[in-house]
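Annotated sample (chain length 207).
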Amino acid sequence: MTVNPNSALAFAELLIKKAPDFVELICASTDDEFDSAHDAFIGEAVDHLEVNKKNFAALDEVGLSGVFAASLKMPGVTVLQEAHSNGHVDITVYFHHCTPVRKKLFEAKIYDGPSYHISGLEQLLNRYATGREGRGVVLSYVRKSNIAQLVKSVRAKMDEDLPCSQQGHTSDHTIKWSFLSHHAHSSGEELAVAHVSCNLFLEGSDK
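Output written by the structure step:
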């Protein structure tokens, strides 16, 4: 097959114009560049949940994760629910356009206090992660009011207890009501985790 270089260039320019976030993702050469680019897609998935929270009010944790997983799908990416990795991971994402293939693990919880959030972190790091994956994600579906203060309480608890061999204090994340932590893993690697919160509170239903 002969590729017309002019056509290829025109296609590349069109792709950069129409899908800049996708271009940044597939062109990322470092883990930090890749995570930064993928944060844009995570942010869009969070936004989709939040603006449709009335429509999703009857969904449980698995249902919410199904909606979130669907929002992460794109060409060259496989998104699975309940895939097996030393247990059933809520969401697993494979990025086939990368060499080697990159993989992200997501553990999701409906918010029920700092200790419950940390239990999700423990599942992610101590059961599911092998050390080969990129930055993991703990998703928190928050149906209680005052999400900003709830996230601060989780960070305060983690910074006090340093769970899962946490390395230092948590740090800010580019996505609102979210933060980052770093942990020594049994593989000998230091694994980063993004803690991403979705505001699903509905007036008159603080549960």
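Annotation: The chain has one domain: 30-199.
Annotation: The beta strands are 77-84, 88-95, 102-110, 136-142, 171-172, 178-184, 190-199.
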